[in-house]
């Protein structure tokens, strides 16, 4: 089967690319802007027709959570019109779509792991546009899966792990919030889970649109995450645990966004413990202390 990956230059897209040789049964076509704009229906239709695509994996998104508050139109265009366009093309060509979404569709008020049917209540532009994108995919008549993830990091692009490694060498001390709980997701693990769902979707009895949650296992705060990164990397600057109120951001962060993974585990996906995967990524980055 031929798979079109959109947003292929982002950290999830590049993680899929990294593991693609392990899946010789699939022929991947990695694309990104400007040659494959997910809001351009003619362009996506051409790609699907020309390459005989059987599945689209949408890794493209507007992901600048804080900036979205000041450019809601652009966030909406990419996060709503984009998946809507892909879902329409998938429906018209009777092919499948895997779309990636986020824990930001939840309000963060819960203190129990969030299931796929937990009520959504986004608090900012990013979360609202990602939720509207999910609904657009659900409305379309294509076979689709929506995979919500959280706290994504990888050896590619910009992410929390790479930022902390950099700040650990630039600063004398750091303040990090300890009252936001969640679970990091190593993008390589998510990429493998996506391909498990891709295989499941080839079963003709699969539902028209399923939602799954995926992150690594466990639950920690950003403070715990930072301490573990620093310990593994041999960075010794002091890290102070602070409350979110002392670190205001344009977009509100969910206080609790631990995703329940029972459904995707039952589908056959592997969910490693967050620290195991963190150490794997740090080793690839050459950041582990000698
Ligand atoms: N990062 C996280 O912590 C996190 C957490 C939860 C969920 N997610 C979700 O996980 C998915 C992957 O995230 P990521 O971190 O890999 O994102 P990313 O690194 O920001 O990559 C997104 C990619 O999409 C491209 N793109 C933007 N607009 C596009 C368009 N109209 N058409 C085609 N491509 C376009 C971007 O190009 P430019 O760079 O040129 O804009 C970029 O290469 C997204 O759906 C995101 O919402 C991320």
Provide a descriptive summary of the structure in words.
By secondary structure, this protein is an alpha/beta fold. It has one domain: Rossmann fold. Helices cover 38% and strands 17% of the residues. The strands form four sheets. Strands 2-1-3-4-5-10 form a six-stranded parallel sheet, with helices on both faces. A two-stranded parallel ribbon has the order 6-9. Strand 4 (96-102), helix 4 (125-139) and strand 5 (143-149) form a beta-alpha-beta unit. Helix 2 (41-51) packs parallel to helix 3. The chain is globular, with a radius of gyration of 19 Å. Bound molecules: NADP nicotinamide-adenine-dinucleotide phosphate (NAP).
What is the fold's blueprint, element by element?
Elements: E1 2-6, H1 11-19, E2 27-30, H2 41-51, E3 55-58, H3 72-92, E4 96-102, H4 125-139, E5 143-149, E6 152-153, H5 160-170, E7 174-177, E8 181-182, E9 185-186, H6 187-200, E10 209-213, E11 220-221, H7 222-233, E12 239-242, H8 262-266, H9 274-284
Bound molecules: NADP nicotinamide-adenine-dinucleotide phosphate (NAP).
């Amino acid at each position: 089967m031929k798979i079109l990956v959109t947003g292929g230059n982002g950290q999830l897209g590049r993680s899929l690319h990294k593991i693609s040789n392990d899946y010789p049964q699939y022929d991947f076509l990695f694309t990104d802007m400007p040659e494959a704009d997910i809001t351009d229906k003619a362009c996506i239709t051409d790609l699907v027709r020309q390459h005989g695509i059987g599945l689209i994996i949408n890794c493209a998104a507007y992901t600048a959570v804080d900036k979205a508050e000041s450019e809601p139109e652009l966030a909406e265009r990419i996060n709503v019109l984009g998946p809507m366009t892909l879902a329409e093309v998938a429906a018209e060509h009777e092919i499948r779509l895997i779309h990636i979404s986020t824990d930001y569709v939840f309000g963060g008020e819960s203190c129990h792991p969030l299931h796929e049917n937990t009520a959504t209540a986004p608090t900012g532009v990013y979360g609202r546009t990602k939720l509207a994108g999910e609904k657009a995919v659900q409305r379309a008549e294509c076979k689709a899966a929506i995979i919500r993830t959280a706290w994504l990091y990888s050896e590619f692009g910009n992410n929390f792990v790479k930022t902390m490694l950099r700040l650990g060498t630039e600063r004398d001390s750091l303040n990090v919030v300890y009252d936001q709980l969640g679970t990091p997701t190593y993008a390589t693990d998510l990429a493998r889970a996506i391909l498990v769902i891709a295989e499941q979707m080839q079963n003709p009895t699969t539902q028209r649109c399923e939602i799954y949650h995926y992150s690594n296992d466990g639950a920690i705060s950003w403070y715990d995450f930072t301490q573990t990164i620093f310990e593994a990397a041999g960075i010794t600057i002091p890290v102070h645990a602070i409350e979110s109120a002392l670190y205001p951001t344009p977009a509100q962060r969910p206080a609790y966004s631990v995703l329940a993974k029972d459904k995707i585990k039952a589908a056959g996906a592997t969910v490693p413990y967050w620290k195991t995967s963190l150490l794997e990524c740090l080793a690839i980055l050459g950041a582990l202390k000698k």
